Amino acid sequence: xxxxxxxxxxxxxxxxxxxxxxxxxxxxxxxxxxxxxxxxxxxxxxxxxxxxxxxxxxxxxxxxxxxxxxxxxxxxxxxxxxxxxxxxxxxxxxxxxxxxxxxxxxxxxxxxxxxxxxxxxxxxxxxxxxxxxxxxxxxxxxxxxxxxxxxxxxxxxxxxxxxxxxxxxxxxxxxxxxxxxxxxxxxxxxxxxxxxxxxxxxxxxxxxxxxxxxxxxxxxxxxxxxxxxxxxxxxxxxxxxxxxxxxxxxxxxxxxxxxxxxxxxxxxxxxxxxxxxxxxxxxxxxxxxxxxxxxxxxxxxxxxxxxxxxxxxxxxxxxxxxxxxxxx
Length: 328
Hints:
By secondary structure, this protein is of the alpha/beta class. It has helices at residues 16-25, 41-51, 69-82, 96-101, 110-125, 161-170, 184-197, 220-237, 241-248, 252-273, 276-282, 288-301, 317-326; strands at residues 5-7, 30-33, 56-59, 62-63, 87-92, 130-133, 138-142, 154-157, 173-174, 206-207, 210-215, 284-286, 307-309. It has one domain: Luciferase-like domain (TIM Barrel, Alpha-Beta Barrel), CATH 3.20.20.30.
């Protein structure tokens, strides 16, 4: 199996520690803790770093609208110090539905905000006193008041073409979500244009797609169904952001049908519109052999560190545990 990391997404389930300990025992390198509109991710990540020994714990993701970049730098450095450097910063825009309707913030200038955010977080983590004159942030005179700073890798969850270029220019890693394995090569062209502009190479960016993953030796159809449910929810319920993204990467008719299905019959209607081709291209599911072949396709297309994104909302505890153990 070629998955390097694990994420369960969203809020942490009660048995999160057991899941991450399973992932660590399976030899996975990273665990990415999501944050949506339930529990804060920081206490969970703190708990996980205290209970693990080798796996990197990562924010997956801090959105760039609801915490200041200085606060993210403080949080990252504190968690890295707690764990001897086992923390990675995952940043992203989230989407207008969450930013505006839950947080009440304006979803404005996302590309400029992401660029300035990364630059500021990296500047504070360097240990230097920060002087920054940007379009959105104007900072002067402060450094982190700590004995040691950590050069935490910074990953960006970017899907749009311009944002992928920016990621290639200045980020340490790229986190695409719902990216079909058939589109990885095309998507990387924009990342590589960014690395060229930043006088870097594509090898400087860890390509870490989040791949909807569910594996069952005894009930592969149920595993495929859980991945289908995840795709349906993201494309149907999360506004136009993910629908437009999968449309841009080859599934335009399907994206429209999924959104229409959600409007007609919410989750069930959306699931009916998710095709087998979408499940095969976007996910890694079914039997262990089928999932392994899917991960191989992502790696062959240019992924460095695929992250298995488990649909824990739609899969049983037994299937989640089986999936994690099969990732070794």
